[in-house]
């Protein structure tokens, strides 16, 4: 083992992209454990890698005393001066221990500890690197499944866990497929270390920041995002520059930018809405493409409003399974009720002539 230590250190350091010092420390710790098992003593054993010989030196550290009371930790002045004549009482001396007899036990224990410590060093390295990428997008390749959870390989250096609760129910995952993932948590010890999401609204925000330079640069601002994952997303934007159309910037030339986002979302519908400080104007924008006839503010304090639409636009305004009006209300932060023009006309008629037959 000792004859190949230099080679082992160089090989592991290169393969795992770790500093040689980390590997050397692991080997030294392993040899100390092996030595303690072999010698079966309570000595203060230490190990040191000799870069010249490529060997691990085992030694016991003992205190120089006048009278030895603990032979495992102390040595008499006379015995100590056989090692070094300049030693005095109170000094510490290193007593070399034979390594030839360690044999198989040293190799087995060393191997186990080296693997353990190298893994620990790798985990720490991954943690330091990816904690700085928290709440950012990373790219992973589908590697395997654990129940209903998906495990991704990230750059061959870490694994990412996409739990069922953070996945989109309509999405299918194929082994070897590359996907963007939002990094939501980094664990220092437990594996997989990276916890990711494709379900959150923050995932949508990061996609737009990547695809739309005006958002990344702060010219176009995302005011709010609401989402029914796998079905529909509404995102409200406005521009800090009167010369920049926020919706046009998000759509891109011939829809290039929004199409890239929709492709990443596996066809999920994305509505880009012009933000407006006026809630009446805001809800008209949010309910697009429905044709809005009137907006009635019922209670500004409780933030309740009523929206009147043409009869043939009622289903458009409400949307499939009520998604359009539901998301529009969440987007603007109001309770929105949709009524058709004929429905509202009948309601007004009943109010004017409550007893008419």
* CATH fold topology of the largest domain: N Utilization Substance Protein A, Chain:P, domain 4
Largest sheet: 5 strands, mixed, barrel
Shape: elongated
Number of helices: 12
Name the CATH superfamily classification of the largest domain: NusA, N-terminal domain
- Whole-number tally of structural domains: 4
Side-by-side strand order of the widest sheet: 5-6-7-9-8
Sequence of secondary-structure elements: HHEEEHEHEEEEEHHEEHHEHEEHHEH
N-to-C CA distance: 103 Å
Strand content: 25-35%
Helix percent reads 25-40%
Reported CATH architecture of the largest domain: 2-Layer Sandwich
Give me the count of strands: 15
Radius of gyration using CA atoms only: 35 Å
User: Segments where pLDDT lies below 50 for 5+ residues?
Assistant: none
Mean pLDDT across all amino acids: 90
Which structural class should the secondary elements be placed in? Answer: alpha/beta
Using the coordinates above, name the CATH class of the largest domain.
Alpha Beta
Question: What does it look like?
Answer:
The chain is α/β, with parallel strands linked by helices. The chain is elongated. Strands 5-6-7-9-8 form a five-stranded mixed barrel. Strands 1, 2, 3 and 4 form a four-stranded mixed sheet that branches. The chain has twelve helices and 15 strands.
